[in-house]
Amino acid sequence: MIEKKCINPKSAPIPAGPYSPALKVGNYLFVSGQTPEKPGTDELVEGGIKVQTKQVLENIKNIIIASGGTMENVVKVNAHLLDINDFQDYNEVYRNYFTEPFPARTTVQSVIPGGALVEVDVIAVLPQSS
To answer: Which domains does the chain have, with CATH numbers?
Structure first.
């Protein structure tokens, strides 16, 4: 049987449904799609794509840190934008969270429930000792 550990720190938003904010399986971390809620709540931050992207990436960072890793451990990013015309502004904020070699990434335009402009999920490879 595969051992799965739920990662649900208080520094992450409250899940909107029956899912784990992240699952740690071995040294892999699978972070569920995060939208721009304030930590510990289910309330969206106010602001445009840059403000919401920053909050989403901060939420992801908090989950990864709670798992014993850093943003440097991220190897794959899936991003959903409500409006693909926000891609340039999204990228501007995204660059502040990742360095070369950048994670592999897919970015698409999607319908995002709850009024968010952006949703992001990631896969990270954590240090063996975490």
So the answer is: 5-125 (3.30.1330.40)
